[in-house]
Amino acid sequence: MADKNKKILDPGVGASYRQRTKRIINPDGTFNVRRIGTLNVIQDAYHWLITIPWLPFIAVVTSVILSTNFLYAYIYWFIGIEYIGGAPTGFFWDDYVSALFFSVQTFTTVGYGAMSPDGQFVGLIASLEAFNGLLLSAFSTGILYGRFSRPMSKIKFSEVALLTPYKGTDDYSIQFRIINKRSNTVLHMKASVFLSLNDKNDRDGTYSHRRDFYDLSLERSSIMFMPLSWTIVHIIDKNSPLYGITLKELVERQAEMLITLNGYDETFGQDTYSYHSYVADEFEENKRFIRNFNVADNGDILLHVNDVDLREDIPPKEDKES
Amino acid sequence: MADKNKKILDPGVGASYRQRTKRIINPDGTFNVRRIGTLNVIQDAYHWLITIPWLPFIAVVTSVILSTNFLYAYIYWFIGIEYIGGAPTGFFWDDYVSALFFSVQTFTTVGYGAMSPDGQFVGLIASLEAFNGLLLSAFSTGILYGRFSRPMSKIKFSEVALLTPYKGTDDYSIQFRIINKRSNTVLHMKASVFLSLNDKNDRDGTYSHRRDFYDLSLERSSIMFMPLSWTIVHIIDKNSPLYGITLKELVERQAEMLITLNGYDETFGQDTYSYHSYVADEFEENKRFIRNFNVADNGDILLHVNDVDLREDIPPKEDKES
Amino acid sequence: MADKNKKILDPGVGASYRQRTKRIINPDGTFNVRRIGTLNVIQDAYHWLITIPWLPFIAVVTSVILSTNFLYAYIYWFIGIEYIGGAPTGFFWDDYVSALFFSVQTFTTVGYGAMSPDGQFVGLIASLEAFNGLLLSAFSTGILYGRFSRPMSKIKFSEVALLTPYKGTDDYSIQFRIINKRSNTVLHMKASVFLSLNDKNDRDGTYSHRRDFYDLSLERSSIMFMPLSWTIVHIIDKNSPLYGITLKELVERQAEMLITLNGYDETFGQDTYSYHSYVADEFEENKRFIRNFNVADNGDILLHVNDVDLREDIPPKEDKES
Amino acid sequence: MADKNKKILDPGVGASYRQRTKRIINPDGTFNVRRIGTLNVIQDAYHWLITIPWLPFIAVVTSVILSTNFLYAYIYWFIGIEYIGGAPTGFFWDDYVSALFFSVQTFTTVGYGAMSPDGQFVGLIASLEAFNGLLLSAFSTGILYGRFSRPMSKIKFSEVALLTPYKGTDDYSIQFRIINKRSNTVLHMKASVFLSLNDKNDRDGTYSHRRDFYDLSLERSSIMFMPLSWTIVHIIDKNSPLYGITLKELVERQAEMLITLNGYDETFGQDTYSYHSYVADEFEENKRFIRNFNVADNGDILLHVNDVDLREDIPPKEDKES
């Protein structure tokens, strides 16, 4: 604990800005940085195909396969469909469709044979297309597996962080809750929480755009198992950089809690990382989390994954949580 | 050792319950938590297909492939099998079977050609099915490999933990034994053992459902190689939370030892984790483990993997183990 | 920090040489070591196929596939193309091309059937080729995926390291800047910097070819996130082995900074390593880095990846950086 | 260093034996343990197929594929080859070969179509075989990739460990040398060395079969880069358990040095482990290692991988190595 709560150097997100910036980590888990000049799609194709969402991915793969087939079909049509065993009708559309079916039968290596290449040039094109089909199939298998097997945790963070009394004490604390949306168990879960706070000018009480960073001490910074949810708690005692600061001031000073989690995911057999942030607008006062599990009569514990956000008003005059 | 044996915060399994719960970790290695609202099969398909047992997995894959083929066959039959080069018999069953064979020949890309599409609409359907077949084949290859290559250890824990004298001393100890059921070697094996014990009410001698947790110190918490079995020993000396507690009280206080192991598995080239628990009902007194290996005349060591549970009564008046 | 800046044992690159050597790590990221007697291509095929650049890789795969097909085609031609359902023309070229098309149709498992084996010997060869094709296809799929999924970071190092005043102090520092060329985020980035410096002979002021190594302390040796660039700084204070040495002497003593980086790459879900070196010829004086990001009016941060090298002359008489 | 050289608990290989055993780690890198009752081939197929050598692997895969084809061929023959479009000859062999070719064409999905199923029962069998072929192909692709991508280091250990003076001192040392047989670079290489020594009975000078274990301190226990070879050195000073023991006694006491290495392998992007042992019979006195690299005139370093064993007699009266 000794080295916690103290002011630290920039954890890598930039400390000194000349004007107001947006939050550091966006709600969708990306950083508020637009990168200009990164590797393009061709230079970094695997990375791109692995990380785009499923819909664009399917669109890209389908487009590549379809346009390849359309192109080969055009070549067969141009050579003349009599060379692939078809009977020319003289109508472009009918002939092109025949050429397209031959192309698909070659690309997928179905090769019924009712149409087959008859001539050296068309034989060469068909050979190329068959290899092309195999290659694209191998490639797609690899990318598909890469997308599936990429170790990704599915940790859900509570919508807000609560500024709430710490159980059984007079201290306040800031708390948020996480849960694993998957049905597997995460082991050796560790959390780190940093606070970014804009500098205060002691003379005129204004705030600069220069950020100070603090490493917040946690009630518990790791747990061995995570079958339930985990409420991560920073106690706002005298050593805390949050001590004595009102929520209004936190908003003005663009306070942002940066969080990283990592743990061992049973399904992937690998460590996975998550990160998230709460800005001061997402801090809530006078609330406390309601436990999101209960014990059934038979002794089973029932965990309500979607209740990770469940909270209630703190009744007045109460200072102890059961 | 200094930080061992002490009371610790909840390792993540929940400390405060209002009624009696079942054991924390079930004998089958799952946690006694029913998770409501996790990602469903569609949202988390890879995870699901990777973790279900082999029989349901094979059933799912077979069902998907068969129903796809039955569906396409129905479409071909509906269009009319004369469009796939068959001769309609007028009997549904015979015609449908012909359509089904054509469907399989297309899906698997065998494409003998005795039947082949004849017409633009049926040609389109057959093209779709051929791509469909390739896609499902790529998908299955990926999932199959994912299932195989998932790093999983095959550690067997002894059925019971023994409360038994520690060799050559007057101290008691609690011991259990583990063995690798695979024929490979695990390196850098590390063990952590936690004890969960329900709170004792000192006034009336009753026990609450609130759990206390302790980090148990181990005689040895890691070994470099594990070609043999490993007996993991916690010595119940004065610093131990188990000191002076009878087995009867342990049962009443729902004592449970939570164990995590991790080590480097040569076959997968990755760290793997195992966890397990012993509840007080699985603690045995007045027994000791019998060594499960012996030396052959030629100097070979013979290890009997299935003897990991082998134990014998401690003869009266003996306090030293050879 | 206590154990930094001190002289250390050789970090593995050889300390004692009898004559002048080239730099330790080449600008292309390889070590200046020619290894004689390593495993050859056959013994270590996977490693070789995974690490050669894309152009040679494609050339190798294409050559293997083409020569396999040419060989089988020759066998079919030698047996006689009448046994594969072709009509011999008596011209080698025409017959060989027919045999080649049959070979490709078998290898890719297209199997149109216009040509098909007719005879037991040719049937055996065609069966072998079909298996051969499947095997090579499986093999290529695996290698292709292996190439794609190999965890590799794309860290760009600034061209030069700057000997420049440390902000707001009288101390000098040596600085270089790194950036991630990918659009993903690297987490828990750690840096280690070693200095190699040839021994000075205090009597005659000459330098030997024996290298001393130092572990350089860094202003910050790790950052939690790397959405921006990272300027890695060693302060040349009195404890630094670089203290009081001129750039000219550094060149003469073959000074070389050896750098290793490692961090967790989101895309691969794995730790990746990078290494690099700066020799004294790549140290620049009287320059400072210009920040390579700016804040847009809407609060977005714009990062210019290719400006990682951007630097400017330090105006005379200035000793503080904004 | 403080916690090194001391006597430690059994690192997992068994301390107490009632009779003489063979060495702990065999020269081929396996442990001298015969495991009885491990998971069998069916229960642990992936592990088995991934770890058997290439020749048995190829034999197994070929056998499975061939016997599958022979079996299906027999079924087709039994049904009658007229149902697969063949003309029965009345000779078993000729008909069976035709059935076999049809089987291969179906299994590999070549499907020329000169033979094709004609009848519902044979159509069903052929459909099964086509799926079977796809499945085995997917399976083989996965296993093949699993074999290739398994992270394995190719570290070569010197044949012997040398008991030799430590450079520039009066102390003796025990040294061995390792080299990477691959052409890639290993990063962050770490070594641990344990000594196993049979107990000495101080009364009668005999030795028991009970082993003591020591953690040997190393001159350097890790290196940052390993482009060259690495000589791992334990100095036999007064704190060493080897101090004052003759080689003859070491042989009698079955001394064995157990070594584990691990480092990050660039090609696999993963940590890999190696282990090895030297028994006292493999300790050599009065020799020293000759450096296995030299500097070319152009400053290139030439490393002779196969010279890792190169050693020479120590000339009498010399106590300093250059």
UniProtKB/TrEMBL annotation, chains A, B, C, D:
<feature type="transmembrane region" description="Helical">
    <location>
        <begin position="121"/>
        <end position="146"/>
    </location>
</feature>
<dbReference type="InterPro" id="IPR041647">
    <property type="entry name" value="IRK_C"/>
</dbReference>
<keyword id="KW-0813">Transport</keyword>
<dbReference type="Pfam" id="PF07885">
    <property type="entry name" value="Ion_trans_2"/>
</dbReference>
<keyword id="KW-0406">Ion transport</keyword>
<keyword id="KW-0633">Potassium transport</keyword>
<dbReference type="GO" id="GO:0005886">
    <property type="term" value="C:plasma membrane"/>
</dbReference>
<dbReference type="InterPro" id="IPR016449">
    <property type="entry name" value="K_chnl_inward-rec_Kir"/>
</dbReference>
<keyword id="KW-0407">Ion channel</keyword>
<dbReference type="Pfam" id="PF17655">
    <property type="entry name" value="IRK_C"/>
</dbReference>
<dbReference type="GO" id="GO:1990573">
    <property type="term" value="P:potassium ion import across plasma membrane"/>
</dbReference>
<feature type="domain" description="Potassium channel">
    <location>
        <begin position="74"/>
        <end position="144"/>
    </location>
</feature>
<dbReference type="GO" id="GO:0005242">
    <property type="term" value="F:inward rectifier potassium channel activity"/>
</dbReference>
<keyword id="KW-0630">Potassium</keyword>
<feature type="transmembrane region" description="Helical">
    <location>
        <begin position="54"/>
        <end position="79"/>
    </location>
</feature>
<dbReference type="InterPro" id="IPR013518">
    <property type="entry name" value="K_chnl_inward-rec_Kir_cyto"/>
</dbReference>
<dbReference type="GO" id="GO:0034702">
    <property type="term" value="C:monoatomic ion channel complex"/>
</dbReference>
<protein>
    <recommendedName>
        <fullName>Inward rectifier potassium channel</fullName>
    </recommendedName>
</protein>
<dbReference type="InterPro" id="IPR013099">
    <property type="entry name" value="K_chnl_dom"/>
</dbReference>
<dbReference type="GO" id="GO:0034765">
    <property type="term" value="P:regulation of monoatomic ion transmembrane transport"/>
</dbReference>
<feature type="domain" description="Inward rectifier potassium channel C-terminal">
    <location>
        <begin position="155"/>
        <end position="299"/>
    </location>
</feature>
<keyword id="KW-0472">Membrane</keyword>
<keyword id="KW-1133">Transmembrane helix</keyword>
<keyword id="KW-0851">Voltage-gated channel</keyword>
<keyword id="KW-0812">Transmembrane</keyword>
<dbReference type="InterPro" id="IPR014756">
    <property type="entry name" value="Ig_E-set"/>
</dbReference>
